[in-house]
Design brief:
Blueprint lengths: L14 H11 L3 E6 L2 H10 L4 E4 L5 H7 L8 E4 L14 H20 L3 E2 L11 E4 L6 E2 L2 H8 L3 E6 L12 H21 L4 E8 L5 H6 L3 H9 L9 H12 L10 E4 L7
Parallel strand pairs: 1-2, 3-7, 7-8, 8-9
Antiparallel strand pairs: 1-5, 3-5, 4-6
Pfam families: adh_short, adh_short_C2
Organism: Suricata suricatta
Protein name: Carbonyl reductase 2
């Protein structure tokens, strides 16, 4: 689910949802994308004025149609992901295809997709959360191609994972999607840098949304994993959101092709 699901608390939360709320609180004009209508409805009540798009980003054609009315993007957060744990010897085609379609292919599609937008449409953006301005500009209006066409700088942030760098049992497919995202981030940064478009990722440890809890279904694995973190904790959504906001902002103006580890020190252990 693009906007995340339920954590251990009893309120709707997740990295994508909390990113939308943070950007909205800062005065940004935000478009939020999720496959779940109820999540978007409750988010709209929390953040009056945001725009929402309901679509499964694992469906290429449906995504193209759903984003047809989305205009020019200044900042993009690619947060869509599914975690479907399976031992390597039990990996199925369905899980493999679903994981790569949502976790990686959608990132490519959303980050580059383009269409012709007529006059009077402001800047906005899809996929978890994105920011637009009110300046109308006709032309190809979505993310990288739109930024290049308009001659404006921009920032794209991919929400990855520490499993791009470390090994956790039963996550062969999920880890592969995140490792591929690391390579994609670097190549995008290299190719788009000439247009003043920065591309980075945040790589958190387990965050206790419902997706994170799927990884921790085995209590013994959860205990051992937490003990290996030098800070003896998992990440909070706020920790990840703060890193996303930094990478979206001009305070990271010289940062591109990088990954911020929000891992409570796990990688050094």
């Amino acid at each position: 689910d693009v906007l995340g699901q339920l954590p251990t608390r009893c309120t709707p939360a997740g990295i994508g949802r909390d990113t939308v709320k943070a950007l909205h609180a800062l005065g940004a004009r935000v478009v939020a994308v999720s496959r779940t209508d109820t999540d978007l409805d409750s988010l709209s009540k929390e953040c009056p004025g945001i725009e929402t798009v309901c679509v499964d980003l694992g469906d290429w054609d449906a995504t193209q149609r759903a984003l047809d009315n989305v205009g020019a993007v200044d900042l993009l957060v690619n947060n869509a992901a599914v975690a479907l744990p399976q031992p390597f010897l039990e990996v199925t085609k369905e899980v493999f295809d679903r994981s790569f379609n949502v976790n990686l292919r959608s990132v490519v599609q959303i980050s580059q997709v383009s269409r012709w937008a007529g006059p009077g449409q402001g800047q906005r953006g899809p996929a978890g959360s994105a920011v637009r301005s009110g300046c109308p500009s006709p032309g190809f209006q979505i993310v990288a191609r739109g930024m290049i066409h308009r001659g404006v700088p921009g920032s794209i942030v991919h929400v990855s994972s520490m499993v791009a760098h470390v090994t956790i049992p039963n996550l062969a497919v999920y880890s592969s999607t995140k490792s591929a995202m690391t390579a994609l981030t670097r190549v995008m940064a290299a190719e788009l840098g000439q247009y003043k478009i920065r591309v980075n990722s945040v790589n958190p440890t387990v965050v206790l949304t419902s997706m994170g809890q799927k990884v921790l279904m085995d209590p013994e694995i959860a205990r051992k994993l937490k003990e290996r973190h030098p800070l003896k904790k998992f990440a909070e959504t706020e920790d990840v959101v703060n890193s996303i906001l930094f990478l979206l902002s001009d305070r990271s103006a010289s940062t591109s092709g990088s990954a911020i580890l929000v891992d409570a020190g796990y990688l050094v252990s």
